[in-house]
Specification:
Immunoglobulin-like; mainly beta; phosphoprotein; single chain; five-stranded mixed beta sheet; 37 strands; flat; 11% helix; calcium ion binding; calcium; transmembrane; four-stranded mixed beta sheet; 718 residues; Cadherin_Y-type_LIR
Length: 718
């Protein structure tokens, strides 16, 4: 309520209100000055309001007193319950934890004024989840309340927490939240086999390394605490098997380490131990974290292929052994209970296998062809054995046959030697050291001996010195050699081996005499060098000859090019019948100079041949055969030329410059006339052969012949 000392209660004073909430939340009676709240107030929304009040004269509207400010504070009441802003909660705690182990702390918030009364004083309690967990009423910390809680018994817990204000007193407001607690696993359980004996049946044909069975130990723990390691306890049959852990299923996978054989042993028994990999030292007192079970394996009999007595056979045979000689045998047996018979045959792969045969029943191997160690020293092939009762069951074994050497080849000089001896050689000088080779397989300690043949021992030129280490030296026996007398010497050397039977060969060595300097360095070995003048070496002579050959080639090429050029010029001038413009720098030879352009294509070939005169021989007299009078102007040729001229003048594709067009056209009539015998003279007497005598001495005989016929013709009238 507002009141001014100037207000006498006669209605002359008016009260006004301004500030927070004036007119919306609060209103004032203008006459009495009473302030009223026109709607509900919420301290949590706005805890106080600042207002300004003033007394005004009703008539003059002027303030009677200065404006005064006052604050309206909203008093709190317990109208808000505690709230868990982070709920619901999720927490975990290891299983088997002791009592009082920390799990989680929860917190509730009350919007009421914590400074006024107990409206914001919160107390925590558990409504659901006892007796497993407890909570501190003031702090909200949740702890375990029971010892040895086992995850394998119960893993998930749901705890309902209540927060109540007013210190938990009657009439206080409360809020709740849920806490989901999970027990995490610890390795508190050892692995256990569900049964003490496992029985497995395994075929004897199982491959080494294959899985033949699985066993499993159960561990109720989870994750890495449930990982199990399996081991075979050393004992009966354990060395034939191995066991590993399947990481996905934690099963023990038993694998085969060695082949099984039903005929050898039909059953195996061994123990398998299962243990945890990750142990927890807190639970060592519980006992050993491992378990043991017995595994019994029964081997099943299978129909198996024959088994060879050896994994590989090696045999030996001498070369050139007669065909059909037995050199060895292979043996295979059927170890099954039925014990079937076995058949043998060679696994044919190439033609080399045909050198041997095998007895299908006994398995004996014999030669099928003559063997040559020098061609093939070793044979490698396979023998296949199959059961008669089941031919599809086969086994294979490798057979190696070594061909032993027989001394059949004599030793020879290992390489062809080029032996030289100087003209100024001294007696006893070694000019060549030779060695020998034998195509046969030389045994250990094989020795070769060297000597001269009997016919060469008496000659005083050279000798052979055997060094007794499979080499020998060729030594001179004369004091000097002459190339003029003899350039080449042929020395027969006999080489003999020490094997049985003894083999020997005679090898002829060629020794060339050479010119050497005083130090024994070879200067020349060619016989032509003897006749060369002193001071002119072979290289210089070759250089001179090479220069001469080059000069001759140059001359020949020059002449050939000149002839080719001349020939090309003549061919061009004769073959090119088109118009040519020939430019001469000298005066021509007159009308007779027709070499510039061949106009023979425009003439009658017959007339040209008849009128051709030899220019190399001057005739006795310039008499010519009688000629017919020239044919008068031929209008046919003129018309032809005029027609072609008009065509060229009207041709749009004709060149813009003057050009000469030539036509080899003689017209209808020819100076040569017809060659037909129909138009010939009726008799030979009408012919006049007098002109033959004017053609020179070469036609004299022909003129005499026709002249005689004419003179002896009785019908001729003179």
């Amino acid at each position: 309520k507002l009141h001014s000392d100037l207000d006498k209660g006669v209605g002359t004073v008016k009260y006004t209100l301004a500030g927070d909430g004036a007119g919306t939340v609060f209103t004032i009676d203008e006459t009495t000055g009473d302030i009223h709240a026109i709607r509900s107030l919420d301290r949590e929304e706005k805890p106080f309001y600042t207002l300004r009040a003033q007394a005004v004269d009703v008539d003059t509207k002027k303030p009677l007193e200065p404006e005064s400010e006052f604050i309206i504070k909203v008093q709190d009441i317990n109208d808000n319950e505690p709230k868990f802003l982070d709920g619901p909660y999720v927490a975990s705690v290891p299983e088997m934890s002791p009592v009082g182990a920390y799990v989680l702390q929860v917190k509730a918030t009350d919007a009421d004024d914590p400074t006024y009364g107990n409206s914001a004083r919160v107390v925590y309690s558990i409504l659901q989840g006892q007796p497993y967990f407890s909570i501190d009423p003031k702090t909200g910390v949740i702890r375990t309340a029971l010892p040895n809680m086992d995850r394998e018994v119960k893993e998930q817990y749901q705890v309902l927490i209540q927060a109540k204000d007013m210190g938990g007193q009657l009439g206080g407001l409360a809020g709740t939240t849920t806490v989901n607690i999970t027990l995490t696993d610890v390795n508190d359980n050892p692995p256990r086999f569900p049964k003490s004996i496992f029985h497995l049946k395994v075929p004897e044909s199982s491959h080494v390394g294959s899985a033949i069975g699985r066993i499993r130990a159960v561990d109720p723990d989870f994750g890495k605490n449930a990982e199990i390691e399996y081991n075979i306890v050393p004992g009966d049959g354990g060395n034939l098997f191995d066991i590993t852990t399947d990481e996905n299923t934690q099963e023990g996978v038993i694998k085969l380490k060695k082949p099984l054989d039903f005929e050898t042993k039909k059953a195996y028994t061994f123990k398998v131990e299962a243990s945890n990999l990750h142990l927890d030292h807190r639970f060592h007192s519980v006992g050993p974290f491992k378990d043991t079970a017995t595994v019994k394996i029964n081997v099943l009999d299978m129909d198996e292929p024959p088994v060879f007595s050896k994994p590989m056979y090696t045999m030996e045979v001498y070369e050139d052994t007669p065909v059909g000689t037995i050199i060895g045998a292979v043996t295979a047996q059927d170890l099954d209970a039925g014990s079937s018979s076995v058949r043998y045959f060679i696994d044919w792969k190439n033609d080399v296998d045909s050198y041997f045969t095998i007895d299908a029943t006994e398995g004996t191997i014999a030669t099928n062809e003559l063997l040559d160690r020098e061609s093939t020293a070793q044979y490698n092939f396979s023998i296949i054995a199959s059961k008669v009762s089941n031919p599809l069951l086969t086994s294979k074994v490798n057979v190696i046959i070594n061909v032993l050497d027989v001394n059949e080849f004599p030793p020879e000089i290992s390489v062809p030697y080029e032996t030289y001896v100087c003209e100024n050689a001294k007696p006893g000088q070694v000019i060549q050291t030779v060695s020998a080779a034998d195509k046969d397989l030389s045994p250990a300690g094989q020795r070769f001996s060297f000597r001269l043949s009997a016919e060469a021992s008496n000659k005083p030129n050279f000798t052979v010195h055997d060094y007794r280490n499979n080499t020998a030296g060729i030594e001179t026996r004369r004091n000097g050699y002459s190339r003029r007398q003899q350039e080449l010497y042929f020395l027969p050397v006999v080489i003999e081996d020490s094997s049985y039977p003894v083999q020997s060969s005679t090898n002829t060595m060629t020794i060339r005499v050479c010119r050497c300097d005083s130090d024994g360095t070879i200067l020349s070995c060619n016989v032509e060098a003897i006749f060369l003048p002193v001071g002119l070496s072979t290289g210089a002579l070759i250089a001179i000859l090479l220069c001469i050959v080059i000069l001759l080639v140059i001359v020949v090429l020059y002449v050939a090019l000149r002839r080719q050029k001349k020939k090309d010029t003549l061919m061009t001038s004769k073959e090119d019948i088109r118009d040519n413009v020939i430019h001469y720098d000298d005066e021509g030879g007159g009308e007779e100079d027709t070499q510039a352009f061949d106009i023979g294509a425009l003439r009658n070939p017959k007339v040209i041949e008849d009128n051709k005169m030899r220019r190399d021989i001057k005739p006795d007299s310039l008499r010519f055969p009688r000629q017919r009078p020239p044919v008068e102007d031929n209008t046919d040729i003129r018309d032809f030329i005029n027609q072609r001229l008009q065509e060229n003048d009207g041709d749009p594709a004709a060149p813009p410059y003057d050009s000469l067009a030539t036509y080899a056209y003689e017209g209808n009539g020819s100076v040569a006339e017809s060659l037909s015998s129909i138009d010939s003279l009726t008799t030979e007497a009408d012919q006049d052969y007098d002109y033959l005598s004017d053609w020179g001495p070469r036609f004299k005989i022909l003129a005499d012949m026709f002249g005689e016929e004419e003179s002896y013709n009785p019908d001729k009238v003179t």
